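Below: protein 1.
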Amino acid sequence: MKNVLFVAPEHNVGGIFSWAQVFREKFPQSEYRLYCVDNAPVREKKVSFFGRVVTGLAALFRIKREIKSILETTHIDIMHATTSGSMGVLRDWCIGRICKKRKIKSILHCHYGCIPQTINSHSLIGWGTLMSMKQYNQIWVLDRKSYQMLQKIDTLKNRVRLTPNGINLENQVVNIIPKQYTQVAFIGNLLPSKGVGELVAAMMSVNENISLHLVGGGDMDFISKIKTMAGSDWGKRIKYYGVLPNKDAIEFMNRMDVLVLPTYYKSEAFPISILEAMSLGKMVISTRRAAIPDMLTGADGSLCGILVEERNSKQLAEAIDWCHNHPVEADKICERALQKVRQAYDLNTVYAEYRKNYRDLLTV
């Protein structure tokens, strides 16, 4: 039995927290035992830059203290540290230095998809990202663009691993049934950078039998703006449901035909809502941001969804209408997506890859 010190958020909301919560619950511990440290700072949802710095530093001192406390009483074989980048690079560097000093094998698991842009920006954060990565034995990334970029850096190319997230498909039985492609959903945070405005604008020109269902929280000013854009269609062809619990959101998605995520969010990484839609046999329309092209492309290069340009309402409308006008072809895409998620993103498959990476790390 090998011991893994898993450093990841245990509170707050967001994709990395949700992923870590599932990992702690579902990762098989017959070969590797997890010890956990919370790396999330305690802060309000809306906080100033100065407030972020202060809470981040407070969290850093706590994290270092908790890690050292565990290391004093327990033999740790692997440090598995998660990160969302940005201002967390100082924390990542410090954890990596602790591992180097104590000769502990280490992994930096990057849960963000703007690594190429960050490093190529030649900013302080970009420099800090590179410096922190160099402290670790393995670097796990979610998307192929980040993987290929890091492969070009001599000091990192032998450390980088492409490790997608997964979804629990246990006891799930789904068959593709013919759809009319009239029920379109957006499920997520209602932010301008998630492409919600462009999606509402696209609805103005699609077939009048198509309805849009918006699920998620957002700033009331922005919601008022899209309500104005929708005009008389608000509450009729365009409906807003607010935030739904995760289980209810998945059940809601199961009643839909299409999930649309026209995101250009800077830190977009690996939207779990896309995997959930694919696993339910739904059509996905999204952009080429971060890992999304990997998710919506089969091993043979075939489409498992529809990719559109960012900030392009015209392409969104065309994609939505295409599904409605070509339901048989759209059903075939949904079938390929269902097979892709079963073969590549089932938790058992993903966790087997994690364990392989652990073994490789310990045999070096």
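Below: protein 2.
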Amino acid sequence: WGNIRGVISSNIPDMKLFEEGMYTSQATDVWGINDYQLFDEVHQQLNSLPADQSFFTIVQTAGFHRPYTIPEGHDDFQIENLDGNRLSQLGFVSNEEYNSLRFSDFSLGHFMNLAKESKYFDNTLFVVIGDHGLPDLGAAHLSPGERFYHLTRFHVPLLMYHPHWGNPEFIDTLATEPDVLVSLASLTGHKTLVRNLGRDLWDPRFNQTRYAFHYVYYRSPPHIALLDDQYYLLAEPSHIMGLFDVGGGNPEKDLQSQLPERTQMMSDLTFGLYETARYLLYNNPNPLKTSPNLNAGHGH
């Protein structure tokens, strides 16, 4: 599904992949074992490693998908039912969807409780990210631009936790998923050769040039777009569709004629990222095959 195996195994050396058929738990529904069971399996694997062995682990949960199954045997998880107006304000279509997300959160909390009692907890950086957002479905607290251009489809949280970090900090800056692994390597002191479009979120050289590139594959033809702190440039591969102020009160107004220099700059960057991504599909050799000295490490 989604070539997850290919992406992970082609980028992380000495990868050991755990998938369907390798778990001790039984499948709950079409998505396999539920998130609570998955985190139990993750904890067992990590806690069995030698205390001095470093590891990099990716856990892909799947419970927050239809049919929104809440598994039996978890009496400490309480179902909540909200009225239709409140569900709409929060962006949910049903109580089943709402409680499915709550159970995924409950499962993550269960894992963190297990980790706190483990030998790996004190020396592990925990990172939580969503793979994609969802349509807002009338949710409150969104700007007109976010709602009109359905930007919640691309907006996900990125949480980082280490037990010995100081006071919590909230960072509000543009970032994209390709930035995550590059930034984690920097944060943990690992030298890297970056072969994708990700950039270090802690590198001040990029602070004034943070953009998010969007590729909307389910449009025909596909849409490509670029978002900065204020403007959204929307295009198809053949032409620019418009420049819009997504943070203002009139996000539907095309500002190309009023802001020609910004339009040109964002257009050049949009098509540059698009063509570079296409180029990399065919001209980006696998470093794990071309550079044997990179094959040192452990991943799950």
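Residues 294-298 have pLDDT under 50 and may be disordered.
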